[in-house]
Design brief:
The chain has 211 residues and is mainly α. It is built from ten helices and two strands, in the order ααααααααββαα.
Length: 211
């Protein structure tokens, strides 16, 4: 038998709450796995370190507070964040919060792989989305971001449809009904440009044939 007090003592109330939602959709039967709660605690630690330097003297990492244009890796993070926000929103309809938490884990991984790309606006929206799942950690991060009122009164962050699609897609090229090549193409490309990209990806299969 699992004693919640023992789990909270060892891992914290937020990790316990997070794991309860991450195990499976709420309507499903679930078996307790002690390794699972360790993973949830590690995720919260990573989310904390994403915004807070444990060896620093400032409430929030200075690079998060810096102004930067929405381009390059910062734009990539904006797309990742909006995909996360969409999945979190969707999870409330079916009460499958495990998918929301998985999306937040993906965003933290994406942001951790791009040091210096995260903006304060992105951090703000991530913390607000985290709040229903890990309210204690989110409240502390919210205060460190300089917010004076409780995160419980903050508006819910909505996904921006403009950033839900990538700027590129994988163009699959067939020759005589068989896949012979794949190439990354911009979504804004015209038909002639797509045709040229496709041809370039399968040149060896077109030798001796009319273009």
């Amino acid at each position: 038998m699992i004693n919640p007090d023992d789990v909270i003592r060892d891992h914290g109330a937020d990790a316990f709450r997070l794991y309860e939602m991450f195990m499976a959709p709420l309507a499903d039967q679930r078996a307790w796995n002690p390794n699972g709660i360790v993973g949830c605690r590690r995720f919260l630690d990573r989310a904390w370190r994403l915004l807070v330097d444990p060896d620093g003297s400032t409430p929030i990492r200075p690079e998060v507070l810096a102004d930067r244009p929405l381009a390059g890796e910062t734009l990539e993070l904006e797309r990742s964040l909006n995909r996360m926000l969409k999945r979190v929103d969707d999870s409330f309809a079916e009460l499958n919060f495990n998918t929301a938490i998985a999306a937040m884990m993906t965003f933290v991984n994406d942001a951790s792989e791009r040091p210096g790309a995260l903006t304060i606006g992105q951090a703000d929206r991530f913390v607000r989305a985290l709040s229903p799942f890990a309210p204690h950690v989110a409240e502390e991060l919210w205060r460190r971001l300089g917010r004076e009122t409780s995160i419980a009164h903050a508006p819910w962050p909505s996904a921006d449809p403009r950033y839900l699609e990538d700027e590129t897609f994988e163009l699959v090229v067939q020759v005589l009904g068989k896949v012979r090549g794949k190439v990354t193409a911009p979504r804004s490309a015209a038909e002639d440009e797509l045709r040229a990209l496709a041809k370039g990806a399968v040149l060896k299969w077109l030798e001796g044939r009319r273009s």
